[in-house]
Amino acid sequence: MGYELRVERPAPLAFAELAAVLGRAGFEFRGSQEAGEVLARHEGAVHAVAVWNGALTGAPGSDWQVAQLARVSALLGAELVGEDGESYAIRDGLVEQLNGSASYEFGKLDEILAAGPAVWSR
Predict the structure, then answer these.
(1) Does some domain include residue 92?
(2) pTM
(3) How many domains is the chain partitioned into structurally?
(4) Cα distance between residue 93 and residue 83, in whole Å
């Protein structure tokens, strides 16, 4: 598994709330209340965005997946946090990584989503 991002918020996330938010936002869910995957569509194909097992986590391999995770986090009123303590957010239509006072812009949300899940080159 690659670098992991997790959705964090002060109150525990109940599956019913997750399912309601995902349905309203156009995401899909495959699995059970105990474990499953959050999926998003792009050009007719379904792509995994996150894993649910009582908590919501993802191991993105593209800017598109980071943007989708940031969308889910925002919709849940949560924060998207990386293993090193950095956070990811959508601000003024931009997907950003924030670490202390430093920030890195991934790009415009709508452009990233339109480009799709092209995998990062290593």
Answers:
(1) yes
(2) 0.92
(3) 1
(4) 24
- The model's pLDDT over 61-78, given as tens digits with 9 standing for 90+, comes to 999 999 999 999 999 999
**Contact indicator for 118, 62 with CB cutoff of 8 Å:** yes
If pLDDT is split at 50, 70 and 90, which confidence band does 60 have? very high
The answer to whether residue 122 is domain-embedded is: no
